[in-house]
Model the fold of this input.
Amino acid sequence: MPTAVFMLKVPVSGMVKARLAAALGPDKACAIYRRMVERVFAELPDAWSVEVHGTPPEGLEMLASWLGRRPIYRAQSDGDLGLRMLNACRAAFAGGAESVVLLGGDCPWHTRAYFEKAASALLTHDVVIGPAQDGGYTLLALKQLHRTLFEGIAWSTASVLAETLDRARVLRLRVAQLDILHDVDDLAAWELARAELFADSPD
Done:
């Protein structure tokens, strides 16, 4: 079974969702972040193992009190996003993971069915990617570590998905792409998520 590896920030007002905070205030942005992560956690298949790689390191206890005892909690490494994701995947595989499904806290559209499709596709592919509407990805699933997929990528740009796919082609990896989903990084994306997923939200 896959291991879900979450890259998360400690849910503290002023430390998460900066663009949302600029529009709605840091407290509301933090509340939205919490709701999105909680929604995705509720959709994880029961049989999957879960790891949370958190930042800052001193906030791991706060993450554990929030998300409960199911995950293993580890501190994110130093470095850019690619290096931190690479090291998180490396730690999961070193800990015995058969495969890794790398996730963040920005896509509340992830569902159990979506995760199950990723796991099914991984049986016949080397890499499974859940593309994001903004040109990145919301999910990256791997059977084994390929560090080239994490190095030299222009993170937080519209070219992340294309660059990752190019790297996979060079490595001759079999790649499956899932349905395109949205990341919630700004007010427009939150308004869409609120309309479709959080109609009862006071935020």
About this structure: The first strand starts at residue 3 and ends at 9.
